[in-house]
Design goal:
The protein is mainly alpha-helical and about 120 residues long. It contains 6 helices and no strands. It has one domain. α1 crosses α2. The radius of gyration is 15 Å and the shape is globular.
Length: about 120
C-alpha cells in the first residue's frame, strides 16, 4: 500500500467483505487480514469492529472439501485478537496457521538464514 488513501480503501473493502455474509467475500477478507497479520498498523483498526465481525461471521457456511474454510475466518479473528491484546512480535501466530515462510521472507517480514531438512 502506498499511503493513507490506499490503506483506507483496503480497510473499508476488507471490513465490508468480512461483514457481508457472502461466503466468498468473507473468505477473501479473512485471507487479506491473515496476509496483513505481521503489520500491526493494518490490523489494529479492526479491533473496534471485532464484535461486529464476530456477529456477522457467526454460523456462516464457507464449505471446504478436505478441511473447513471456516479456519481462515477463525484465524483472521485470532489475528485481530492477538493485536488487541499483545504488543509483541506476531511471529508466534505462525505456529497456529500454515504460513509460507518463503513468502514472508520475500516480503522481508522475516529472514531465512538456514533450512534444515528433518527426515
Amino acid at each position: 500500500m502506498n499511503g493513507t488513501d490506499d490503506f483506507k480503501a483496503w480497510f473499508d473493502q476488507t471490513l465490508s467483505d468480512i461483514c457481508s455474509g457472502d461466503s466468498h467475500k468473507v473468505w477473501r477478507a479473512a485471507c487479506a487480514i491473515i496476509e496483513s497479520g505481521q503489520y500491526k498498523e493494518r490490523i489494529v483498526p479492526f479491533v473496534e469492529y471485532l464484535a461486529l465481525i464476530r456477529e456477522r461471521v457467526w454460523g456462516i457456511e464457507l464449505g471446504g472439501f478436505v478441511a473447513p474454510n471456516k479456519r481462515f475466518v477463525d484465524f483472521a479473528l485470532r489475528t485481530i485478537e492477538f493485536h488487541q491484546i499483545h504488543n509483541r512480535c506476531p511471529c508466534c501466530l505462525y505456529l497456529e496457521h500454515a504460513v509460507d515462510p518463503k513468502k514472508e521472507d520475500k516480503r522481508a517480514l522475516i529472514r531465512i538464514d538456514k533450512v534444515v531438512l528433518l527426515c
